[in-house]
Specification:
The protein has 205 residues and is mainly α. 70% of the residues lie in helices and 2% in strands. The radius of gyration is 17 Å and the shape is globular.
Length: 205
């Protein structure tokens, strides 16, 4: 897929903000394709064994697609929501592929297009987190969006509040609930729940 010009992406974001569900559906594949392309390009320049930070790619994709045509925080929030969802899908697909190969004992050459990204979670933990977030989305979509924006897009609490149109106090209150809920769901046996609290922006608090 060819990269959509920044002006087109900005217009798409404005249409999404107006409540156009079709525009929202069109935004996700555009962002997904750009993230995959950036990951492939960056991976080719890394030394063997190195991985890419997902949140860095999200922010690079924003600059690449939007450029100087900053649409403001309300519309910017829609971009990061789409990017966080796309990054989550890419990472979870990668985790499932690794788990499948591990179970099957298969050895095969991994193409550069099958990008190696990283967040602070193991393969099984990431798949479990995705399942937990899917359940949370069915009950409270905004809480799931908060996790997506913080964990997969690396936004700070102030940025998340602005993107979702709520106060930082609301984000803090809901984040405490989210952490408690996901920790309970994901801490099974000796497995550690992903460190959602300290992951944002390169695992900084």
């Amino acid at each position: 897929m060819e990269t959509v010009p920044p002006k087109s992406v900005t217009q798409l974001l404005q249409t999404v903000a107006g409540g156009d569900r079709q525009a929202a559906a069109e935004l996700l594949p555009v962002v997904y394709a750009e993230l995959r392309k950036l990951a492939k390009s960056r991976l080719a320049k890394l030394s063997p064994g190195q991985t890419l930070q997902a949140t860095a790619l999200v922010h690079e994709a924003y600059l690449k697609l939007i450029g100087d045509a900053d649409p403001g925080w309300e519309n910017r929030g829609h971009f990061f929501a789409a990017a966080a969802r796309a990054m989550r899908d890419i990472l979870v697909d990668q985790a499932r592929r690794k788990a499948s190969l591990k179970r099957g004992g298969d050895l095969r050459r991994v193409e550069v297009g099958e990008v190696e990204l990283t967040v602070d979670a193991g393969t099984e933990d990431l798949v479990a987190l995705d399942a937990a977030l899917t359940r949370l989305e069915q009950e409270d979509e905004r809480k799931a969006q908060i996790v997506n924006l913080r964990y997969f897009a690396g936004l700070e609490r102030e940025e998340i509040a602005a993107a979702l149109g709520v106060t930082t106090r609301t984000i803090d209150r809901e984040w405490r609930y989210i952490i408690a809920r996901l920790h309970k769901e994901l801490s099974v046996g000796s497995r550690e729940a992903p460190d959602l609290e300290n992951h944002a922006r390169g695992s900084q608090p």
